[in-house]
Amino acid sequence: MRDPIACLECGQLYGYRTLSAGETATCVRCGAVLYQGRRGMVERALALTATGLLLFGLTNAFPMLALRAQGSAVEMRLFDASIAFWREGFPAVAVLLFLSTIAFPLLELAALLVVLLTLRLDLPRSGAIVLYRVLREIRPWSMLEVFMLGVLVSVVKLGDLATLSLGVAFWTFCALIVTLTAIRAVLDPLTIWRRLGREPAT
Amino acid sequence: MIPAGAHPVTVHQAGLLQCRVCGRLTRPPAAYDPGLKLRCPRCSAAIRLQQGGNSIQITWALLVASAILYIPANLMPVMSVYMLGKGEPSTIIGGVVHLLKGGQWPLALIVFVASIVVPLLKLFALTLILVTIHRRSMWRTRERALLYRVTELVGRWSMVDVFVIAILSGLVRFGGMARIEANIGAFFFAVVVVLTMLSARTLDEHLLWEAHEARAEEEEA
């Protein structure tokens, strides 16, 4: 078997071959995705990652929601929501929320930017390899999409209670979620690993 | 789908080692040395010589801990709504019922699935997978692998209730007039989500297939 690869989920062996764009190789035994054929993956992901970082910055800079009741108003930024549990007396939960909505998403985008730039500019690989490993570890703990659902549930819950207004950051946040989803759809982990290891890849 | 070559074999059967981080294959060293630390030539992550290791025990421990904490997470109030000084604590299920009474059933359904169905599904799915590995079951291995993948994927969505509590308590702060406070149940609930996510992650999914292969070889012999 030339250029052997194995399914990461069940260990079944296959021979690597280049796929045409849009094609997906699936494991015949367990059904997991092995890799996908992608054209211009690095360039597209790079553009999306830069967009993501910009949107992330804007989302943090502006208020997301504001609540008005009888003359007084409370504004909430992403950061305020992430540390709300601190004031409530649960610092551990506040740390968890800060990590999953601010630190990890930022680290994920920044690490991805470095990895993609390394591939695009053909720089020395060692730093990018470490970052890509870190990125794979933190991905499940980066929960902006889940936070988005939480925002929507809160908006509906508060709707009948008080006057709620959506801030600029609400809209940049929606755009950020779309961008993050697009990044995950464009990236193919095996292709990235093979290019980081300077092996032939799609 | 790609052609699997003349005779499909596994990493295990071919006597190779697979890096679990990047998937790169390597040959094991000729002489086994327990003190030797193997590193992946591509991503330099540590490669385990012994398949599986103690992943099963850690998964069990985390799973049992989360099953125990699941009880206070559901029985204790997760937040209290204070209106004109009068407090009204509510549990996770209470929140769903409140949404239903308000006629917001699509939202009630989302919260019900994310907060109640998903954690229970994770506890049952992981227990089923662990027990079948112990019994070296060959029963629907492909479906069990799919169940594992789904469990790992949907786990994080249970955090939605914790986020809602953070947003509500961060926004509704009007002193004596109206105020929303987070309660201890939310803490337990967050811990349950984290523990079940860790539990799913520490389980080595290859064990499903190794148990399957072991039983197949046994039956052939």
Largest interface: A-B, 69 and 70 residues
Quaternary state reads: heterodimer
- Overall strand count of chain B: 8
List low-confidence stretches of chain A: none
Q: If classified by CATH, what would the architecture of the largest domain in chain B be?
A: Up-down Bundle
Describe the protein.
The complex is a heterodimer of chains A (202) and B (221). Chain A is 58% helix and 13% strand. With 202 residues, chain A is α+β, with helices and mostly antiparallel strands. In chain A, the strands form 3 sheets. A 3-stranded antiparallel beta sheet of chain A has the order 6-5-7. In chain A, strands 1-2 form a two-stranded antiparallel sheet. Chain A has a two-stranded antiparallel ribbon with strand order 3-4. In chain A, helix 1 packs antiparallel against helix 4 and helix 1 packs antiparallel against helix 7. The two termini of chain A are 19 Å apart. The model of chain A has no long low-confidence stretch (mean pLDDT 94). Chain B has 221 residues and is an alpha+beta fold. The longest helix of chain B is centred in the middle third of the chain and has 30 residues. Chains A and B meet through strand 1, strand 2, strand 5, strand 6 and helix 2 of A and helix 3, helix 4, helix 5, strand 7 and strand 8 of B.
Chart the SSEs and their pairings:
The complex is a heterodimer of chains A (202) and B (221).
Chain A: E1 4-6, E2 13-15, E3 24-26, E4 33-36, H1 41-61, E5 65-69, E6 72-76, H2 78-82, H3 84-87, H4 91-121, H5 126-138, H6 144-159, E7 163-166, H7 168-186, H8 189-196
Antiparallel strand pairs in A: 1-2, 3-4, 5-6, 5-7
Chain B: E1 17-18, E2 25-26, E3 38-39, E4 46-47, H1 55-75, E5 79-83, E6 86-90, H2 92-101, H3 105-134, H4 141-154, H5 160-171, E7 173-174, E8 178-182, H6 184-202, H7 206-220
Antiparallel strand pairs in B: 1-2, 3-4, 5-6, 5-8, 7-8
Task: Label this structure with key terms.
heterodimer; A: 202 residues; alpha+beta; two-stranded antiparallel sheet; 8 helices; 13% strand; B: 221 residues; Butyryl-CoA Dehydrogenase, subunit A, domain 3; two-stranded antiparallel ribbon; disordered N terminus
